[in-house]
Amino acid sequence: MLKQNFAALLLAGAVLAPAGAFGQAVPLGDATEGAELYQYECASCHQIGDGAEHRIGPHLNRIFDRRAGSYEEFHYSEALARQGRDGLYWDLARLDAYIENPRSLVSGTNMAYPGLEDATERADLIAFIRAYSDQPQNIPEASPTAFAPEVRLPPEVLAIEGDAEYGAFLSAECTTCHQRSGDFAGIPGIVGWPQEDFVVAMHAYKKRLRPHEVMQNLAQRLDDEEIAALAAYFESLRD
Amino acid sequence: MKLNRRSFLGTATAATAALSAPAVMGQARPRVVVIGGGSGGGTAARYLAADSDGALDVTLIEPSRMHYTCYFSNLYMGGFWEFDDLGHDYGNLAMRGVNVIHDWAMAVDRDAKTVTLGSGAAIPYDRLVVSPGIDFVDGAVPGWDVSKQSLMPHAYKSGTQTQLLKSQVENMREGGTYCMVAPPNPYRCPPGPYERISMVAHILSQSNPTAKILIVDPKENFSKQGLFEEGWARHYGAMVERIGPDFGGDKVEVRPDAMEVVIDGMVEQVDVCNVIPAQKAGKIAELAGLTNDAGWAPVKPEDMRSRMDDNIFVLGDASQQGAMPKSGFSANSQAKVVSNVIRGELTGSRIFPARYSNTCWSLIATNDGVKVGASYEPGADQIESVSSFISQTGEDAELRRQTYEESIGWYNGIVADIFG
Prior knowledge:
The structure holds two protein chains of two kinds. By secondary structure, chain A is mostly helical. Chain A has helices at 2-13, 31-41, 78-85, 92-100, 102-105, 119-130, 155-158, 164-170, 195-206, 213-220, 224-236. The interface between A and B is medium-sized, with 28 and 39 residues.
């Protein structure tokens, strides 16, 4: 049903975006392809769709033509907030540039995403995201929960109340690489994440669903309690 | 599981609180003295001061006003980083409540529990953290001693020695020979000498492509050997040659005044010679009576406590703890365990079971980074590895680039964790 929605939207929106200040038109791609890409590339941090909320990153509903860093309740990197104050708006060209290489558009952003090189894939992704902007009546009714989580965890695991003091001790193992300030300086910031996202991410490493040897190795010896403790501690570090 | 851990922790805390009660009676604040402001001592001082929120009187004794990290000094050698990028001062540690004294620790009186400074002052402690790094074993390479370190630099304590070696490489005659006398195990930073070889090769392949690099190595094999050898062959052709013990790499003598290296009786004329001698714990550990016949300070695996003195903890390169490599990452990891234990003993805060980790990244050529790492836990007699990983030969260029970028992120992370 998602597919049908997008197909309809595409018929209506199969246009080239107007040339932006970047000088080049960015074609809108295939939103159905984009939906799949979104799941892989974006969904672990950004929610989109009916009822979407800020998670590790802000939700992406109605992102088009919104000023960068403009949700007061979301904690942005200083770099992104400054660019927003200086007049960065998310138009097609800038979103495209940002997805291609976040740090080349906003040096100092906390978005720990390496970038998507393939222009066609970016166009597909943008076509998908575009469907949630601009004309509210066109927003597909998919909710964020329509995306399968990376790992399905039993409710009792998600319900564990983390021991933040124990988490503070365990975090010593994290902060050799991940900065307590939450800054991204080559290694992603993990401060202020919603606990559930943190727990899901760590279990994904533990099950080796997420690739990264260092993280997989560290996650191996963390039990459910310890993951919850870390999640509680790092969430508590949010300014 | 939850109940077990809770009750175990509760017991541990109660027991240590009882033990430590006499130490904290009759004085304003318990005193912790840390000797050495590198990755071990700097981390310990910071965590002790910040986590105890003023409940502990923390003094850091470190002669240098700037700490130049050994890790990533090879990137300076290879021309990727400036020397100043390696330097960190102690201003933020002072701001976080650490009393920083720039002086030498000359002696430790373990009965009186004081540390004597170069100035003559005696600083009292309830707990002492000793993290002095390494010193070189006298006579380890016949013909070499520290009086020859300007002719044949060791460049294995970061600072002016690193600058000197870099300048010698840059000014080497065309087609000349750079020789490294590699150290026997155990030594600081297992992949360090070989990352240095990579970075020297990187410089020479651009500025002096007919130069040769000779490694004289007493060891059968070395850290990340397959990765380095693959990378040297790929990036630097036949520039790097290594003589292992099977060809006399363990029978080496140097003649610094003549710039000669004698390998199993054969005399080689060289142009630059980097002698990295066998190592032992930093001098103050030995003076304090904390070292064994092997020259290292043995510690207990569960908390890095000296086997010679219950009030003293030894961190990092100077310690003999088991399976962890001597690295800045290891020292940082150990320091956090020690900080948690000392705080618990002196203030009654919760003590958690130790866990340690280490990852070492190395750069082989531009954007060609590799890594090795492991998790560690206390075993019955020593720290043991519980799981590990290493980069693979034949990895694609994109993964190697990511690994390199991650290493930069790690550097930024660890120096922020210590000095930020």
